Amino acid sequence: MKRAFPILAIATAVLLGYATYQALWVAPTEQTMGEVQRIFYYHVSSAWTAGLLFFINFVASVVYLVWRSPKADALAMASAEVGVVFCTIVLVTGPIWARPVWGIWWTWDMRLTLTLVLWLIYVSYLLLRRFSASGQTPVMAAVLAIFGTLDIPLVYFSIWFFRTQHPQPVMGGGGSIDHRMLRVFFVNLIAFSCFGLLVCWARYRLEVLHREVEETQALESLLEVRSSR
Amino acid sequence: MTGSAGLTRATLLKDLRLEWRSKDATNAMLFFALLVVVIFSFSFDPTAEESRRIAGGLIWVAFLFASVVALNQTWARELRNQVLDAYRVSPAPANSLFLAKVWGNFLFVSGLEALMTPLFVVFYNLRALGPGYQLLIVAGLGTWALVVNGTFFAAISLRTRSREIMLPLLLFPISIPALLAMVEATSAILTGEYSAKFWIVLLVTYDLVFTMASLFFFELVLHAE
Amino acid sequence: MLVETAPSPIPPVVTVTNLVKQFGRFAALRGVTAEFQPARLYAILGDNGAGKTTLLRSLAGLSLPTRGSLSVLGATNPREVCAQIGYMAHPSLLYDEMSGMENLCYFARLYGIDDPERSRSLIRWAKLDPQLERPIGQYSQGMRQRVSLARALLNDPKLLLLDEPFSNVDAGSAREMVRLLTELRARGRTIFVVTHQASLLEDAADEFVWMAEGQIVNRTPSLLAAEVR
């Protein structure tokens, strides 16, 4: 398992390189939006990757609550952290894209709004993990993750209906997409997902190691006094 | 085993009695609610036409802030003298305690809303152009949405540092769909321009989902060390 | 180090096996192993930080062990038998704004007791006036502790766990409480008392359990057989 990590890392680096080349050079320039449209490849890919990572967080949280596996808790933490980073990328690239194209910084675009709400929910999740006393943190965080996940369909529907009442610009255009762009998009999607999973895996391993160290230190302090008797 | 509903009722009555006797939280909160309305009225001074459009948002933001102050007090009495340990050690079902607290908060926040609403109507010259009775439904469902999650997150916040800021941090993001629904439904009814039905259905769904989730997980949260 | 008690055909009411409780790196209990017989009054003594409160809370089911196991009234999880356990701590576990009767009647409901007669008789047994309408926040510490003890007895528990019941209590009330405890022990109840005031239990306790640094270091039948450090 540990050998797979460097292999995956190299594969991801290659894939990302190729995907970037495709996105910035090979993909055709968009008709109306121009070069700035290329952000689309990063913007949407990051959104999907964040979604994937939050899904992993949900599954890990459920696994933790059912089996109380500390590794599941470590994975939940790692995936939430990396997911928030990718969410941030979406929220930053969104306005960068919107401003030159539509003249506005922000729009209640479905993807953008959903990402914002997810970002808020998971930042509150990370804050809970940071602020709660160590014994209960895994349980509380897992419960919050489940609440957050239950919220998502409700968020989706509320934004959807809001947009029908108050029409908003749609980012990324509503029409069909050129098949060459689509191909570049898929390459980027896979590259970003691999990258996201790789970083998550690295963070997970770091967290597991960190906990092993703590566990060992705790055991040491336990035995120390006993042996001195 | 005691009837859970009986225990919920007894706990709710006990809380109401305690609040009546001390009145410390109540008075402060009533005054806070009043202040919020006045400050909002200074800050947003629209014409009658505009005010109908934005009043929905203003009112619910004001209710939200007032309710956070109330929600932070939910477990205050149980923290003094470690009363929660008495609950944890007893065989009483955790959900009876939870529901009693939610109902207590619901009644209390509804009381705050009942105080604040006439003031808003006066300051903004409000009049509902749509079906006014629906406002009561929206108020009830929206308040429940806030207090059910608020009471639950207040219990989670008990064991965190900065407990009082933790509650709104956890509550606000998850309440976004409910808040959107409350605001939009209220605007719809006040302006009469479109139907609030979708939002009401969304609120009902939200309330059902999170009431069930809270009831499912509360025992876990209460007993977490 | 354990003092062996004479073998008894009656099964022990509480068995603790290698109980470890850690809060992060701090170990409050470092592997406690002991057996306790029914219908005895055990005084648990030791300095602050010795683990007395943690042990009591573990027996009450308020604190989950990190390692090791315990058996309370035949169950591995005290919460399964919580209806037969009474717990009293230094904070009163009562509402300051309600009177003694109101408090007891309410907490009786947690145990399925709707009849106020039980509360009334317990208040009288604790030598307090059931008609007293003053909120207990205005009681003296001694009176408050007696109401707190009454609360712990509402469900007529087989096992009574008391943490510092005599703290800040006047001598008269303390003696009264000890008298009440011996009465309970005579009725077959098992009682654990954590206290700094061992002298109060000099004649009442069956055994003195000495704790230091998270372990039981000695068990003596009387105070005069001074503990060995």
Percentage of residues in DSSP E strands of chain C: 25-35%
What is the SS-derived class of chain B? mainly alpha
Q: What number is the mean pLDDT of chain C?
A: 89
Global shape of chain C: globular
Kindly report the spatial arrangement of strands forming the biggest sheet of chain C: 5-6-7-3-8-9
Give the integer mean of the pLDDT values of chain B.
Answer: 90
Oligomer: heterotrimer
How many individual β-strands of chain B?
Answer: 0
Sheet/helix structural class of chain C: alpha/beta
Share of residues in strands of chain B: under 5%
Question: Helical amount among residues of chain C, as a percent range?
Answer: 25-40%
Largest beta sheet of chain C, briefly?
6 strands, mixed
Helix-strand pattern of chain C, N to C?
EEEHEEHHHEHEEE
Report how far the terminal alpha carbons of chain B are from each other.
25 Å
Radius of gyration of chain C: 17 Å
List keywords for this structure.
heterotrimer, B: 225 residues, mainly alpha, C: 229 residues, alpha/beta, six-stranded mixed beta sheet, three-stranded antiparallel beta sheet
What does this 3D model show about the protein?
The complex is a heterotrimer of chains A (about 230), B (about 220) and C (about 230). With about 230 residues, chain A is mainly alpha-helical. Helices cover about 80% and strands about 0% of the residues of chain A. Chain A has six helices and no strands. In chain A, helix 2 packs across helix 5 (about 135-165), helix 2 (about 40-65) packs parallel to helix 6 (about 180-225) and helix 3 packs antiparallel against helix 4. Chain A is globular and about 75 Å long. The model of chain A has no long low-confidence stretch (mean pLDDT about 90). Chain B is an all-alpha fold. Chain B is globular. The mean pLDDT of chain B is about 90. The longest helix of chain B is centred in the middle third of the chain and has 31 residues, at about 95-125. Chain B has helices at about 5-20, 25-45, 50-70, 75-80, 85-90, 95-125, 135-155, 165-190, 195-225. Chain B has one domain (about 5-220). Chain B has nine helices and no strands. Chain C is built from five helices and nine strands, in the order βββαββαααβαβββ. In chain C, strands 5-6-7-3-8-9 form a six-stranded mixed beta sheet, sandwiched between helices. In chain C, strand 8 (about 205-210) and strand 9 (about 215-220) form a beta hairpin.
